[in-house]
Design a protein that fits this description.
Elements: E1 46-49, E2 58-61, E3 68-72, E4 80-84, E5 90-92, E6 128-130
Antiparallel strand pairs: 1-4, 2-3, 3-4, 5-6
Length: 146
Amino acid sequence: LEPTEPPTNEPTLEPTEPPTNDPTLEPTEPEALVVCTRPAGCSGGTCDYQCPPGTPTGYYPDLSNCKSFCFCRGDSAGTSKYQTCGNGQEYDPLGWNAPKGHPGVQSSYQYKSAPWGQGTFWGTNGGICSHANYINDDRPAGCGKD
């Protein structure tokens, strides 16, 4: 067997540029994003709505108004909607079948996985308009649930 060549002391390729110290884009905090809020000029029960880019398909409560919610279509074609429940009802993101504390009470829908579900944007795979005493969730009090 013949000996192999010794390693070279000099680099074989030109060095790359050093990394930058600053990020190229400002980081976005999820808490700063609002998924659902009444659009300007919306005065009816249903209005067209533009959900933030990257929002997955689902239902998102307006955290400033317990009666309203958005249906976001995600990246699919079609218009997303902002809707307000009528007749004194509030939006129930989980679709409870009985009042709070009632034996056998259960929800019809589930929260989306993080970061879009419980504790952040409260997105679900469905929802209904219902009487306030049926709503059994833990959305922030800011929507009027004080």
